[in-house]
């Protein structure tokens, strides 16, 4: 798409980032315009860029840097990095940043995650709408107008060691016993970051798919899909490891597997980390989205903290982190946010907290996390529904007279009682309704799940 005249960005610019297929939706000419528009919108005098291992990422990052420098900004490129590595650079250098990645999407995709200085998010309401408008206007006009600013510089800097040292300084790992941990990098950026972070720890890392390969030859770099952690679960059992870790493509999300090869739900990881952090920071606020387990706010209260419930989506989590000065935040999707990491999300720091907890416990990981796994959950179930509004209304009416049931619409429809809850919410991008159900026991959960699905899929 080297001809950007009249480009339509509606399918490329999402709510929180820029993401699409290469080269038909995103190419280097367009990346150059985005770089210029980013500087124009933020007014930045200096920015930092990084990229993942996808074949198209270095060229896109270079073009973006050229566009930014053409508007007068000095650009520091940190090269190959995880998304939380880019957030670290943005925070440490106090510069706006751009990360080139499509996270867990297939190889033909790429994109740009943008942030302001200090890793503050850039979304539709915080600059992305303006950036899109500039790119559309410039492409329609046939190119960039003059900026009136002197050409900026483009330089390179390796910050991987600084990133690792910063994370290690946030968790006390001094008393950790020797552990064996299988790490599935999914051919993504954890293949670069894991050796740097774990190098001096008393941990034997069993590597899986550490070769950086943006074509993802072994499996999709999306551990949220159970089929993509089958290899990890098998290797944990095969090697007698203490635990397993799986990262997505840009390594900002971390999934945990116990010594039996069983997945540890992200809500359980959220509760474990919250309990650890509140021990040193009693009275602090912890953010959780509305489809994390009910165990999370219970654990937060038990440890003297204040739980705050938000909508699903990192922009809402980060907004509440900023508003409340929260210590920590967790999502069902395995994004974990830390106040000491500029309130940004980092899968590696979450992993270190789990390592620290297990490394100072006497039993296996399954025993350690059992206290946080209090309910039976369905996981997220998607249904194709053409008339989402009508279907949600039908579900609301069906449960309107249920004894003790309360309804709220913070994000979709949530119906809850003392013994169970469910949330039904529409996808922002597809004709889907997403259902999550949790109950005190598996039988109740299954009955409730099937009752709601019977209405949704009627």
TrEMBL record:
Keyword Metal-binding: yes
Domain Alpha-D-phosphohexomutase alpha/beta/alpha: 13-138, 162-261, 268-375
InterPro entries in the record: A-D-PHexomutase_a/b/a-I (IPR005844), A-D-PHexomutase_a/b/a-I/II/III (IPR016055), A-D-PHexomutase_a/b/a-II (IPR005845), A-D-PHexomutase_a/b/a-III (IPR005846), A-D-PHexomutase_C (IPR005843), A-D-PHexomutase_C_sf (IPR036900), Alpha-D-phosphohexomutase_SF (IPR005841)
Pfam families linked: PGM_PMM_I, PGM_PMM_II, PGM_PMM_III, PGM_PMM_IV
Domain Alpha-D-phosphohexomutase C-terminal: 380-453
Protein family membership: Belongs to the phosphohexose mutase family.
Name the record gives this protein: Phosphomannomutase/phosphoglucomutase
């Amino acid at each position: 798409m080297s001809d950007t005249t009249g480009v339509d960005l509606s399918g490329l610019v999402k709510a929180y980032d820029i993401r699409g297929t290469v080269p038909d939706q995103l190419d280097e000419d367009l990346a150059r315009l985005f770089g210029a528009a980013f500087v124009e919108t933020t007014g930045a005098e200096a920015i930092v860029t990084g990229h993942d291992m996808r074949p198209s990422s270095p060229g896109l990052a270079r073009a973006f840097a050229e566009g930014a420098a053409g508007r007068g900004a000095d650009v520091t490129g940190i090269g190959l990095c995880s998304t939380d590595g880019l957030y670290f650079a943005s925070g440490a250098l106090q510069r706006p940043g751009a990360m080139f990645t499509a996270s867990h999407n297939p190889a033909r995709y790429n994109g740009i995650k943008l942030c302001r200085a200090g890793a503050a998010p850039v979304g539709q309401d915080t600059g992305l709408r303006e950036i899109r408008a500039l790119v559309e206007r410039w492409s329609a006009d046939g190119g960039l107008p003059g900026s009136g600013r002197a050409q900026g510089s483009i330089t390179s800097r390796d910050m991987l060691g600084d990133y690792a040292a910063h994370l290690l300084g946030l968790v006390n790992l001094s008393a950790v016993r020797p552990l064996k941990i299988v790490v599935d990098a999914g051919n993504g950026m954890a293949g670069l970051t894991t050796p740097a972070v774990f190098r001096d720890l008393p941990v034997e890392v069993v590597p899986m798919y550490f070769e950086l390969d943006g074509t993802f030859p072994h499996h999709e770099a999306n551990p949220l899909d159970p089929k993509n952690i089958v290899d990890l679960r098998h290797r944990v059992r095969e090697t007698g490891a203490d635990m397993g870790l799986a990262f997505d493509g840009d390594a900002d999300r971390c999934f945990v597997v116990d010594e039996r090869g069983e997945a540890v739900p992200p809500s359980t990881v959220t509760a474990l980390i919250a309990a650890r952090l509140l021990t040193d920071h009693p009275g602090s606020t912890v953010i959780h989205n509305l489809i994390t387990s009910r165990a999370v706010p219970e654990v937060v209260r038990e440890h003297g903290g204040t739980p705050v419930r938000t909508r699903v989506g990192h922009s809402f989590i980060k907004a509440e982190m900023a508003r409340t000065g929260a210590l920590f935040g967790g999502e069902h999707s395995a994004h974990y946010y830390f106040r000491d990491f500029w309130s940004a999300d980092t899968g590696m720091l979450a992993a270190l907290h789990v390592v620290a907890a297990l490394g100072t416990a006497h039993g296996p990981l399954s025993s350690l996390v059992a206290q946080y796994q209090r309910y039976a959950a369905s996981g997220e179930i998607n249904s194709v529904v053409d008339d989402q509004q009508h279907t949600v209304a039908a579900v609301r009416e069906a449960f309107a007279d249920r004894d003790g049931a309360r309804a709220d619409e913070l994000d979709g429809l949530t119906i809850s009682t003392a013994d169970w809850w469910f949330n039904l919410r529409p996808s922002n991008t597809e004709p889907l309704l997403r259902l999550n159900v949790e109950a005190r026991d598996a039988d109740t959960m299954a009955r409730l799940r099937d009752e709601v699905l019977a209405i949704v899929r009627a």
